[in-house]
Amino acid sequence: MSNTRPHNNLLNLKQSALAAAVSLAMFSTVSAQEAETPDDGAQKPDLYEQIIVTGTASGKAVRKVDSSFATTSLSAEDIKKLVPKSTADVFKAIPGIWAESSGGVSGANVFVRGFPSTGDAPFLTVQLQGVPVYQPPTLSFLENSTLFRVDETISFMDGLRGGPNSVVSNGQPGLTTNFLLKEGSDATEGLLKYTTSSYDLQRLDGVLSGSLADDFYYMIGGYVQQSSGIRDAGFNSEKGQQFTINLTKELDNGKLNFFTRVTDDHGAWYLPTPLVDGVDNEYTQLGTLNRQASIQYGPDGTSEAFDFGEGRGWDGSITGGSVNLELGNGWTFVDRFAFTKGDADTLGLVPNGTPKTIAELVAIGEDNAERYQDENGNLVPVTGAVTGTEYADSTLIQQVGRWVVRKEIEAFTNDLALTKVGDNYEASFGLYASDFSANDWWSIGNQSYHVIAQGGENLTGIVCNDMQDSCVDNGGWNYDINSTGDGKTTAFYAALDYQFTEQLSADVGIRRENHEIEYSVDEGLDGSIDKVVQYDESDTAWTLGVNYQFENSSGVFLRASEGSKMPYFDDFRDNYGAYEAGSNLIFDVSQYELGYKLARNNYNFYATAFFNESESSQTPFPSAPSQRFFTEAYGVELDAVWFNDNGFSVTLNATLQETEITKSDSNPELVGNEAQRQPGWQLRATPSYDFEIANYMASVYANVILVDDRFANNENTVVLEGYEQLDLGFTLLTEEGLKFELSMQNVTDEDALTEGDPRNPTAPNGRYIMPRSATFSVSYEFY
């Protein structure tokens, strides 16, 4: 981080499209057998017939090359090659997306196409089986990827940017990622997989599918895992399990589906660290010496002990399903629904301010005292609160906040669509409804000086470690709340796709959404309500696209859309003054896209140019004044795949973009600056070579990642330098169904930063990308 800107495997791979087609049947009347195959009849990933299911108002599948919007599809094998440590790691393979997954298994920051954000993921919606896992894309300490874990039960994922997003589903104008589960068939199939790693990961995955009766199929699967964490905390800081059931009933005129997914998985919350000697990308402040601590909260200074080793995670369930029926005379009916309920807590040790030596602490008797003196005026030694070690005056220490966030959420979502298909048109009418709630209890701040060392302990002999008020006097702060919120989103939408000629078509969609929020906040935990919100507003979104096919496998599209970022609970808390003044807090997002698409049997190439205008607000930390500003962004997204008959393939995604703050209500000096924490360009290439070794099928692959510089703040005064990352992998498949996989991530152990200090950008703190690690697995697959 600087203050000046520098100058700017074989069978599985070849079956990926067919596997995707099978899983698509839940949303489409097109069966796997109807998907075309290459002329030679070989099972190759026929990219010409690649199908997508996300973004259509009817909920039906379409060929990707026929679509008039930008989307990326990843098969189960594509996802495995990413070796994701978290769900957000998967999003890095989507053009136009900048995903900071350096915080651990939960709590990612995801940026989309230059839309302004301070973190979390306000422009990301995660769907399971076509239904959002939670209506609000982001709440404080909770974004959608926290509620989802990738495992062997996933068939594939679609990632839709812009386009019709503002009209369908929950109206997300940014990125919608849709994960589809594997389905059973007449054949009984299964997989058992053991995984270990250089950071002592112990994980067991399993999946089993087959038939329960005629046309009635099942899939069950899940995992159990634990490790000390890729940044070793000295104890099992990552642990969890997940179990999924997916049931499918084929009907004469459609399909029924029911699923449930129960998860209890958490991991250490990795935070920005002091950028000093002795600290690198393997560092974590959390450890055995400090994971248990007490904090004081509320007006009476109530003391309570917590285990900060809980970290961040999800303990809950997502249960839902769908009804897909052919009604005759061109009519179809699709209803998708889901119920989400659980706890998404966050506990961690958060750095506050600049590191200093013990010698730099101010003695008692002076303003903002930090050191005790004895009766003779001598400084009392600073010692470890656990070990009793006396630390020298040259020891580096830092204020560390002990943050506790308890969050209980619930949501029921239903999305139904009725579609009429005519000779040259398709018309859809839909009703989307979601009731959701969030109950929060926070105590954040709670600073106390700790030794800067791996798992560095808390200290005694420092005034503010005993008296919270003293820490506040020396740059600390506390914020305690108890809040409860209920919301309801109801939207009617309609879409028409009209085929003018064999080559030319157009589509239009409109959505009218009503958004209600009831929310109250007790700030300070004194039992009184300080902020009350009773909100009821409506908004209209639309999209218009034109598609021209040069031939059956290539074409161009042009699209314009208008959507919005709706306000949720934290938006009102942070912008309460604006709400009281009458602002509806709906932020508009306008997007324009021009796309080119080309698909052949063995390669495809998609390029999308985009321009958007958006408004947003940010709050550096709770209770601080909000800052509202407007941003423009334009760029190009590239998405390509190529393979040959000799076993070589390569996938490529790249983004080139420019962002500019065009207006700021709070700080006019921001105008002309770039939006924070989004690179001007990024590229990811995954070459792969499949070959035979003594009748075994083998594959070697690499992930090559290149990232440009980014600014850590909207003031553009702190630069996060660009970096390169290399991942390598090898798989070996035997005739008996045994598969061995070995991968190494960040081979060169790059010490790159994803962010600075979000509460104090000029403080010398930053969050590193994950350190070098190796993962090995052995699995047995049977049919």
Structure description:
With 783 residues, this protein is mainly beta. It has one domain: TonB-dependent receptor, beta-barrel domain (Maltoporin, Chain A). It is 6% helix and 53% strand. The protein has 8 helices and 44 strands. It has a 22-stranded antiparallel beta barrel. Strands 3-10-11-6-7 form a 5-stranded mixed beta sheet. A 3-stranded antiparallel beta sheet has the order 17-43-42, with no helix packed on it. A hairpin with a 7-residue loop joins strand 38 and strand 39. The longest helix is centred in the N-terminal third of the chain and has 9 residues. The protein is globular, with a radius of gyration of 26 Å. The relative contact order is 0.14.
Approximate helicity band: under 10%
List low-pLDDT spans: 3-44
Strand percentage: over 45%
| CATH superfamily (homologous) name | TonB-dependent receptor, beta-barrel domain
Tally of strands: 44
Q: Using the 3D structure, state the CATH architecture.
A: Beta Barrel
Distance between the termini: 52 Å
Helical segment tally? 8
CATH class: Mainly Beta
Radius of gyration in whole Å, from Cα? 26 Å
Total domain modules: 1
What is the CATH T-level topology? Maltoporin, Chain A
Query: Largest sheet at a glance?
Result: 22 strands, antiparallel, barrel
What is the overall pLDDT average? 90
Based on secondary structure, the structural category is mainly beta
General shape: globular
